[in-house]
Design a protein that fits this description.
alpha/beta; Rossmann fold; four-stranded antiparallel sheet; 10 helices; about 35% helix; binds adenosine-5'-triphosphate; binds magnesium ion
Length: about 290
């Protein structure tokens, strides 16, 4: 499989896309001209934050990350004819290239949406979480059988580092057999304190699940470069955890460019002035 190219985004221009009618230009560069590695987009409800993130995905050839073609929300994948989206990107310091939705080329970019959040972080039956915990459990059991250390131990140790940045207590996540005395080898991911089992991951709080989902995805997809878009990372987070989000993301992926849409004053305050954008002030909207 050919790996997609890993970009850094220097800026975006959007016009006639959903509620963004007039041309909106956001320049993500630092004062020395390099792309900022942490960009924060704020603004009132309906001001276009999610639209900017999805415009980036559409211009960079990733409509499937906006939504699946079969979804009832598949209209989100569509770039209307009158729309202009152009995204300036560079690769490893090469000259800047302009990418538009007209000539999309898939680039390495990941998206954590907020409107899919109930499914994304939901307990038990959540497909995404099911997939993540299933992969970790399967890999841990496979490695144990083969007498290897295995990737699951590495994943879990990184996930637990992120967990500790926010929880700072003696809990951790690990795979265990559901019933060590049973004949089957059914395994699950559990919250533990020392050797004591507290509960299955399905019973975590919503904020804890959101933390697990973001950390596990970044670690297991080996997102070490490129761009990660996160819509409202503060969902379900107490202000104390909101204040730790940057530390978690930087720890997990120091070289990734994170572009974040948020309602959190705490996240806004932590971003440097050149890397934060209030959509209320940057384009005409009805608010
Ligand atoms: N085709 C369209 N033309 C005009 N406005 C549209 C169109 N499609 C969606 N909208 C408007 O876009 C707005 C939603 O934009 P978006 O989801 O980007 O906002 P947001 O800043 O992320 O808001 P929130 O903070 O609530 O998540 C809504 O007000 C919706 O009515
Ligand atoms: Mg939104």
């Amino acid at each position: 499989m050919i790996k997609a190219r890993a970009p850094k985004i220097h800026g975006i221009t959007v016009k006639s896309f959903r509620e963004i009618r007039d041309e909106l230009t956001l320049d993500f560069r630092t004062p020395v001209g390099t792309p900022a590695n942490m960009v924060v987009i704020a603004g009132p409800n309906g001001s276009g934050k999610t639209s900017v993130l999805e415009a980036i995905l559409l211009a960079l050839g990733q409509p499937d990350k906006v939504d699946k073609p079969s979804s009832r929300l598949a209209w989100r994948r569509v770039v209307p004819q009158e729309t202009t989206i152009s995204v300036d990107v560079s690769f490893d310091g090469d000259p800047v290239e302009r990418h538009s939705s007209l000539v999309p080329e898939p680039l390495e970019i990941e998206y954590f949406s907020s409107w899919q959040a109930p499914d994304f972080v939901g307990v038990g039956t959540s497909q995404s979480q099911g997939r993540l915990k299933q992969r970790i459990s399967d890999e841990k059991i496979r490695a144990a059988f083969c007498g290897e250390a295995g990737r699951a131990s590495q994943w879990l140790s990184r996930i637990n580092e992120a967990w500790q940045i926010l929880r700072h207590d003696d809990t951790r996540l690990d795979v265990q057999l559901v019933d060590p005395n049973a004949d089957d080898l059914l395994a699950d991911l559990f919250l533990l304190r020392g050797d004591e089992r507290i509960c299955s991951i399905d019973r975590l709080g919503q904020g804890e699940l959101r933390l697990f989902t973001i950390a596990a995805t970044v670690v297991m997809k080996e997102l070490t470069t490129g761009v990660v878009l996160i819509d409202e990372p503060e969902l379900h987070f107490h202000p104390e955890w909101q204040g730790g989000i940057f530390s978690v993301l930087r720890h997990l992926a120091p070289d990734v460019q994170f572009i974040i849409a948020t309602h959190s004053d705490i996240i806004w305050d932590r971003a440097p002035e050149y890397a934060r954008f209030n959509l209320k002030n940057t384009h005409h909207c009805a608010f």
